[in-house]
Design goal:
- The mean pLDDT is 96.
- The protein is globular and about 40 Å long.
- By secondary structure, the protein is mainly β.
- The termini are far apart.
- The strands form 2 sheets. Strands 2, 4, 5, 6, 9, 10 and 11 form a 7-stranded mixed sheet that branches. A 4-stranded antiparallel sheet has the order 1-3-8-7, with no helix packed on it.
- The protein has no helices and 11 strands.
Length: 123
Amino acid sequence: QLQLQESGGGLVQAGGSLRLSCAASGRTFSSYGMGWFRQAPGKEREFVAAISWNGGMTYSADSVKGRFTISKDGAKNTVWLQMNSLKPEDTAVYYCAAGGPGIATIPGDYPYWGQGTQVTVSS
């Protein structure tokens, strides 16, 4: 069983930055592709960014492209989401997830999930 724990959320003003971390434990982390998703109140969980098992491929949602960057360090069992130029519409609970070795954008493709970290962007 793979356990995931997010950290780094908080309150930030529009235009600011946050770096989310997701620490993994329990199984071989390096073989998993990883993703970040977010869910705002009253909305469905949406894809943010994904990275392949070896970090060789990344993919981001259009809404965050050019502002958010996903990265992964297998030796540290950690994946990060660097978020710059934050907007109020980025406010949500952010979740990291682990799945197959490639890129996936659908929540159902990820069997392992963290509990989420709140990001609030004030205007």
